[in-house]
Amino acid sequence: MRHTSDNLPSGAQIAEMDAFGLDEAPKSLRARLRHRDLAAGAALFRQGDPAVAVYVIERGRLAMVRHTAEGRRVTLFTAGPGESFAEAALFSEVYHCDAVAEIPSRVTVVPKADLHALLKQRRQASDRLMARLAHQVQALRARLELRNIRSARERTFQASSLRLNQVTGRSSWRCHLTQWQLRLDLLRKHSIER
Known about the structure:
It is built from six helices and nine strands. With 194 residues, the chain is an alpha+beta fold. It is globular and about 60 Å long.
């Protein structure tokens, strides 16, 4: 794990990873952004470490994980290029999970105090963060909903329904009609395979 303080993100890199409107951030904040390179399996931070920053993945993939009392790894969230993670650090003194590189990765470190200041000064950056977090909550609730459906067939129907609503952005009579068509197609296929 190498911290490169002499290698600041370029304007193009910031635009690519514009999770918080960093391309519009004051130069003083952009000058404090740093990179961290991680080998596969390396930890960026561990549960209980002081929460000092939020991160944006430039390349690679990181998993937010916890470990059970028996030592089993439980993945809470996986983030890839352009995605931010550890936003909860903005309102916590410590990280609540481990962040581990699944493959060689590079992240941009956004200092917690600087991001707080940016979000207070720039309404658009704050709105972007809230919208992204709201979408994450919706996605997590959908996953929980599917996980709680026991029947594989019903889970498949519901997943199709949720995906269709996500793609169209609404739940209308056309979506319901299409959902029923999908269900009939799945039932026909299931009946033929028997």
